[in-house]
Amino acid sequence: MTVYDYDRRRTGVLLVDPLNDFLADEGKLWPRIAEVAREVDLRAHLSELVSTAREVDVPVFYVPHHRWTPGLYESFSHPNPSQRSVDKHQLFAQDAFGGDWYPPLRPEPSDTVVVQHWAQSGFANTDLEMRLRQRGVDHVIVIGLLANTCIETTAKYAMELGFHVSLVTDATAAYSSELMRAAHELNGPTYAHVITDTKSAVAALKT
Fold it and tell me: Isochorismatase-like domain location, by residue (predicted)?
């Protein structure tokens, strides 16, 4: 795994979609990611990276999916397949268990919660870029869910905007090992500056 010397004054952790529907045992999507998540020890690694970032004063930016409400997508001319699934299964419902933060990863006062994203990019139609620029952050460590959708799209968008991008292979998950391989071994090397694991990322942040 790549080891990178992070300048903590210019680095931020982007925590994407740490919601109950993904991460809680009772979440609607947990059964779909559970095998991969357990294999990589996802929940422990997310907690370790977030706590390390706070410990060394690296800002954590929460990048949440838009919470579902009845009729949310009825006016959309072109809802994408993921949005149709969200609507059908009422995923990440507002003011409900599934749309709440996974308790071990709730934001703290020192964290930044950005505007909810509508599809797969944490940057499109949100204030994420502005919040990063205002903090002087130009290196982003992207973690959370899912590896081949929101993580990949957010990380690619960051690269296009000129950010240095790190992926952490065991701080994300997908619906299958094949999708994880596609995200990290096939697609990741085409845009990410660093592809690493939690152990190496934590060591680098603490250096």
Answer: 12-196
